[in-house]
Structures are given as C-alpha cells and as structure tokens.
Amino acid sequence: MALVYPPDPDRVEEIFRRFEKADPNPHTELDFANPFTLLVAVALSAQATDKQVNKATEKLFAVADTPAKMAALGVEGLTPYISSIGLYRNKAKNVIALSRIVLEQHGGKVPLERAALQALPGVGRKTASVVLNELGIEPAIAVDTHVFRVSHRLGLANASTPDKVEQQLFRVVPEPWLTRAHHWLILHGRYVCTAQRPKCESCMIADLCPSRGLFVGAAAGKASPATKRKAAKKARVPRRKD
Ligand code: SF4
C-alpha cells in the first residue's frame, strides 16, 4: 500500500470504525475533577507525561481544586507540588496568573470559549483545543508528538507542522469521529504505534497502514539506514509553544 495524500476515504473510514469498535468513548488520561483542574492539568502536561502530571496533581488538587484556592497558594506555595514536572517554574507562574484572571475577570469560572481561553497566561492553541475537546464543547484535534507521528505513518497527513497536520486531519477525518479522533490517535501512538519499534504485529489497523512495511517483514530489513532515518525524521513533531 503506497503512502499517498490525500488518503483513500474508504480506508480512513475503516481505520476510525475500528478505533471506535475497540474504544467507543476514549478520554484523556489526565486526572481532573472540573474544568479548572482540567485546564491546569493540560497546562502542566506540556513536555511532560500524563503520569508525571497525575502524580503531581493528586496532591495539588487535594488542596487547590478551584481558582480561589490555587491563587491563594501563590507561586511559592504551588512550586513544591509541581517541581517534578519539566518547566515547572514557568508553569507555576502561569497557573497562578491564570487562576487570578479566572477569578477577577470570569467570576471564578473557566471561560469555555477558545479566544478567552487562549488569552490566559500559558494557554496556547493546543491546550485550549484539548480542554474544549475533552469537555465536548468543540471538536478539536490537538496535534502532539503522538498524533503527528501516527497521522504521518497512516498517511492521514503529510504536512511538516502541527498546525498544518491539524488542518489536514480536519479535512480527512469523517465528522462523526472528529471529537474522538484526537484521543484515538494519541492512545494508538502511546501504546501501539510507538516512536521506536511500533507494535505492527499486534496493530488492529496494520492491514490499512501504508507504513507497516517500514517496520515489519522483508521490506523492513531491506530499507536502507537513510530511508529509516528519513522516515523517523519525518514523523518527529517540530517543537512549539505548548
Ligand atoms: S501498522 Fe505499525 S506503523 Fe502502522 S499504525 Fe500500526 S503500529 Fe503504526
């Protein structure tokens, strides 16, 4: 199967039909109790794993699960809870600043609208997308490293930046699956289509994947180091703000 773009709509439909059959209601693996704790967890998760964030927020949210309680902690009080997470100094400043803005300008409620969310400190397009999508407010496909890699390997996208990949996914993913596509692609990338040694032998969409031959069987053995390096480079997401 050749890696061509745009992908065949029947193939795309079958990919998402199988994702849905295997996991009809996918959700984020970040722990949260309300829109505010979801926003904080997503903001903390930039360049950190969900496990690292959950470990930190378990104790943090026990004492600060509202903007008022978080603002009362202040940067000094918040820092020890999140110091195990990358970029924690900046994240602490942003979380306290956004908590104060939510309190003072939005009556203590997280504004669940893209422009207002993205106006909060440290909240970029990707963070806003994850929050709005998780709460079922707006279909969004936040393109992180997993979504970027899996989309390329499956031939759902071929663009070189996360924003362009997101636009391509919106064009090719059928509407009924748009809200859940983000989760399926992330989970598939995290547990099956991993960056190193993807588990193609047990992949439920292997017969629909044009990249399978790069990793399995005779073709994989024959691929030159340069071809493998090129494929790995192409599937690596460029860094961006959030
Ligand atoms: S067949 Fe392999 S490369 Fe293709 S989606 Fe599955 S795990 Fe990823």
Counted beta strands? 0
**Count of separate structural domains:** 2
**Strand share of the residues?**
under 5%
Report the bound ligands by name, code or SMILES: iron/sulfur cluster
Whole-number mean pLDDT? 92
Structural class, judged by helices and strands? mainly alpha
Number of helices: 13
Q: How is the CATH topology of the largest domain named?
A: Endonuclease Iii, domain 2
CATH architecture of the largest domain: Orthogonal Bundle
- H/E element sequence: HHHHHHHHHHHHH
CATH homologous superfamily grouping of the largest domain? Helix-hairpin-Helix base-excision DNA repair enzymes (C-terminal)
Would you kindly provide a written description of the structure presented here, covering whatever features stand out?
- The protein has 242 residues and is an all-alpha fold.
- Helix 8 crosses helix 10 (178-191).
- The protein is 59% helix and 0% strand.
- The protein has two domains: 9-25 and 142-234, Endonuclease Iii, domain 2, CATH 1.10.1670; 35-134, Hypothetical protein, domain 2 (Endonuclease III, domain 1).
- The longest helix is centred in the middle third of the chain and has 18 residues, at 88-105.
- It is built from 13 helices and no strands.
- The radius of gyration is 19 Å and the shape is elongated.
- The protein starts with 8 loop residues before the first helix and ends in an 8-residue tail after the last helix.
- Bound molecules: iron/sulfur cluster.
- Iron/sulfur cluster binds at residues 153-154, 192-193, 198-200, 203, 205-206, 209, 211-212, 215.
